[in-house]
Every structure is written in structure tokens, then in C-alpha cells.
């Protein structure tokens, strides 16, 4: 079950906003509503956020992100549609019941930190806990723990003004963590920070999320931030969600021209990981098998490369058609594995890290999962395509320099 769901959510500002929803249902455009003094800020937004996910809402200024997040935390009532948190529909809650859900399920980090200037860092971190009814000792302990998580051990007695911008936002983050809610909403939380600090905070948030298993809805107008942070990204335009998907899905398969144009300048090499560009191996061969068996598999399945694995599927290397043909010709009874053919990379390795020596690489890269087992292969042509910003087909048509000789059916085969 999703932790958080939005179902056909609308927010229209103006008098008698319900009119706007009805007009939109009838097919009216935004301009028509504007003429009636109505602003449609969020139009028919539906999505589900899974437990432990970083769900990014990305869109230009005015696209409706802040309004959307305010409906999720119950600050704005929806004009139509539902927000369901942990099975509870906010539209059905009032007064104390609504405040309880907001307090216990959702915490929020703001762009401008929202720290109280005359309270200490520790008091700021503990701020949300008083309303939760915790006693002073518990509040202080939780706040200190949260400050420790964001790398601010020992800063509890300082005043916010003594801290840099990045540190102040860590206090904002600590305050949200101290509330110990499962869901954290972050509204342009890093947008006011210098690029270097921002990057550091992004990494730290991803690391914290993995450690604490929080569900995070993260709002940003920065596409690169969205692509870097989001397990999935919802792209908003003019109040509507245009597409929801992983960074790879949005980059590789944009749903419409708007999304395609929006993402065209993204540095794919920085966003895409080895896991996203690899191909699952069509066939593998056990390390104890000989070259003739490999030769047979390569021919029968017309493989460009064949990964060699141990019984537990950890990779030993990869054999190529040309190599294996030569080995069979020479009568070798061992698979011709070489050092260079055994380069492995992790699933999360950024593509950019693999491109440096793409042109020199003569065999596919092997991609392994966290347990070191083979997850897939990245053919050299994929790297060259990424490097030249050309589709794979173009690189294939132009040819790869020094590509291995293809194994033809009439290759001379000598029995060992
Ligand atoms: N309280 C309000 N009253 C009237 N109109 C509003 C109100 N809040 C937002 N809007 C309008 O709703 C639309 C969406 O605004 P919203 O702030 O949600 O966008 P955003 O994507 O968060 O933009 P930004 O990044 O600039 O904050 C805009 O046209 C805005 O002018």
C-alpha cells in the first residue's frame, strides 16, 4: 500500500472555486478560468508515493508545486480530490484529528529554514516536539540525536545566526528528523544553498533516507536536482502532472514534447547509472565450461559477448566472438579470459565515470549488484553512443574502431 496518495486532486484559488473544477471537467482552459477570477493551481493530480521512496515534484515557478505540497500536509484544503496518508483521507478529518495526522505522520523542511532566531539550535531542533507532548528530557535527547544525524553534534547551544546557511538548513532537517515522522516533505529545501553545499546536502539526504527509510516528497524547480535525487520524478506544468517516472524513463521516453524539450539539455552521463544503461545478459556460461561450449552458445544465440560466471553468479570475465573463435582454432581447452575483459562496475556507478576510457575499452563492462553478482553488461557501443551524444544506431552504422572480427559460420573450427 502506498504511504501517501493523491487522487484527482484540484486546488483552485478564487471565489466559489468549485465552479472552476466543473469548468475544467467540461474542458475549459486555464484562461477561461482566469477570466472568471479563478486560478487553477493544481489540476487533476494523481500519484502514489511508496514507503521509503524519494518522490520528486519538479516544475517551473508557478507550476503548482508548493500548492500541491501544502495540500499534502493539510495546510490547504483541496478544492476536489483526496489526499490519503497511511490510509487516512485528509478530506474526512477536521480539527484535532487533522492536526494529529499532520503532527505524527508528516514533517516539513522549508526553503528558508524557518528557524526561530532567538532560540538555540537545540531548541529549534526540538521545536516540533513540544506539541507532540514529550517531556523536556525526551525532547532534548531526540533533538540532540537528530542534530547528530545531520553532523551538528555539539552545536545545540549555539544560536542560528552563528551558523552558515548550509548548517542552518541542517538544523531545519534535524527538526524534521526529530519529529520521527515516516513522511518528510521538503519544499525547495536546498534551493537557497551554494552549489557545493547543496550537492553535499543532496548526498546527505539520500544517505539519511537509506539509513532511516523515510518517505520523502521533495520539491524542486531544478531538473538536475530532481534527476539526481528522485527515485521517481513527477514533472508538473501549469498545475498538471505531465509525466511520472524514474529519471531514466523520463530521459529515455518523454511522454510529450514539453517533457522532451525540458530534459533535452540534461547531462545524461551524470544522471544515468550503469544499472540504467546495461543490458541484462542474454546468456551466461559457467567458468568451468570450455571454449567449444562458449563458441556454440555465441553462434546459436548470436551474442556479441558472453559473460563467464562462477556458480554463485559472480563474474569471472567475458568472452567475445573473435576471441573464442581463435581459441577454438588453437585448440585451447580453457576459456580465453583476460584481465581487460573482467572490468566490473556497480549498478549505481554514474555513466560519466565510465566514459573516460570508453573509446579504449575493447569489451563490454560487467555490471554487478551489491552482492557482487552479475546484473548485466554494458556494450562498448553504448558507452560510445553516450560519449558522442548519438543514438546507439548511429554509432553502429558508423562502426566502432577496432571492433573484434565477427565470428562467421564458415570460421575454421578445429576440434581440441
Ligand atoms: N494563496 C494563493 N492565492 C491565489 N493564487 C495562488 C495562491 N497560491 C498560489 N497561487 C497561484 O497558484 C499557481 C501555482 O503556484 P505555486 O506557488 O503552487 O507554484 P510553484 O510551482 O510552487 O511556484 P514557485 O516555485 O514559484 O513557488 C500560481 O499561479 C500562483 O500564483
Automatic annotation (TrEMBL):
Family annotation (InterPro entries): AAA+_ATPase, ABC_osmolyte_uptake_ATP-bind, ABC_transporter-like_ATP-bd, ABC_transporter-like_CS, CBS_dom, CBS_dom_sf, Gly-betaine_transp_ATP-bd, P-loop_NTPase
Alphabetical UniProt keywords: Amino-acid transport, ATP-binding, CBS domain, Nucleotide-binding, Transport
Molecular function per GO: ATP binding
Domain CBS, first and last residues per copy: 278-334
Domain ABC transporter: 4-263
Pfam families associated with the record: ABC_tran, CBS
Protein family per UniProt: Belongs to the ABC transporter superfamily.
Cited NCBIfam families: proV (TIGR01186)
Record-given protein name: Glycine/betaine ABC transporter ATP-binding protein
Organism classification: Bacteria, Bacillati, Actinomycetota, Actinomycetes, Micrococcales
Amino acid at each position: 500500500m502506498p504511504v501517501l496518495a493523491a487522487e484527482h486532486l484540484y486546488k483552485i484559488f478564487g471565489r466559489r472555486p468549485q465552479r472552476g473544477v466543473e469548468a475544467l471537467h467540461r474542458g475549459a482552459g486555464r484562461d477561461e478560468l482566469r477570466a472568471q477570477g479563478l486560478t487553477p493551481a493544481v489540476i487533476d493530480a494523481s500519484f502514489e508515493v511508496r514507503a521509503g521512496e524519494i518522490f520528486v515534484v519538479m516544475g517551473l515557478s508557478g507550476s503548482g508545486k508548493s500548492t500541491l505540497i501544502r495540500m499534502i500536509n493539510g495546510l490547504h484544503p483541496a478544492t476536489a480530490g483526496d489526499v490519503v496518508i497511511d490510509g487516512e483521507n485528509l478530506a474526512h478529518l477536521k480539527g484535532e484529528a487533522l492536526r494529529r495526522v499532520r503532527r505524527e505522520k508528516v514533517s516539513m523542511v522549508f526553503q528558508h529554514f524557518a528557524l526561530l532566531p532567538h532560540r538555540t539550535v537545540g531548541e529549534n531542533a526540538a521545536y516540533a516536539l513540544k506539541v507532540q507532548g514529550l517531556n523536556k528530557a525526551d525532547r532534548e535527547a531526540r533533538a540532540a540525536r537528530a542534530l547528530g544525524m545531520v553532523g551538528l553534534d555539539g552545536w545545540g547551544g549555539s544560536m542560528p545566526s552563528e551558523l552558515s546557511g548550509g548548517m542552518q538548513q541542517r538544523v531545519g532537517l534535524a527538526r524534521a528528523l526529530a519529529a520521527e515522522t515516516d513522511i518528510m516533505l521538503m519544499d525547495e529545501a536546498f534551493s537557497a544553498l551554494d552549489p557545493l553545499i547543496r550537492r553535499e546536502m543532496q548526498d546527505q539526504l539520500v544517505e539519511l533516507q537509506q539509513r532511516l527509510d523515510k518517505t520523502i516528497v521533495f520539491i524542486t524547480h531544478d531538473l538536475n536536482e530532481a534527476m539526481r535525487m528522485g527515485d521517481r520524478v513527477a514533472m508538473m506544468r501549469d498545475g498538471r502532472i505531465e509525466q511520472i517516472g524514474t529519471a531514466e524513463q523520463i530521459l529515455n521516453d518523454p511522454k510529450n514534447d514539453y517533457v522532451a524539450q525540458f530534459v533535452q539539455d540534461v547531462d545524461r552521463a551524470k544522471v544515468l547509472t550503469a544499472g540504467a544503461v546495461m543490458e541484462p545478459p542474454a546468456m551466461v556460461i559457467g567458468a568451468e565450461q570450455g571454449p567449444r561450449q562458449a563458441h556454440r552458445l555465441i553462434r546459436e544465440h548470436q551474442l556479441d559477448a558472453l559473460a563467464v560466471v562462477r556458480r554463485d553468479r559472480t563474474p569471472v570475465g567475458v568472452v567475445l566472438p573473435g576471441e573464442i573463435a581463435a581459441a577454438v582454432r588453437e585448440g585451447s581447452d580453457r576459456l580465453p579470459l583476460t584481465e581487460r575483459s573482467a572490468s566490473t562496475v556497480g549498478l549505481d556507478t554514474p555513466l560519466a565515470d565510465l566514459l573516460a576510457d570508453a573509446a579504449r575499452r575493447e569489451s563490454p563492462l560487467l555490471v554487478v549488484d551489491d552482492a557482487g553478482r552479475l546484473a548485466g553488461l554494458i556494450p562498448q557501443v553504448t558507452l560510445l553512443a553516450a560519449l558522442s551524444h548519438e543514438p546507439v544506431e548511429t554509432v553502429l552504422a558508423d562502426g566502432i574502431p577496432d571492433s573484434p572480427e565477427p565470428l562467421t559460420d564458415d570460421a575454421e573450427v578445429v576440434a581440441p
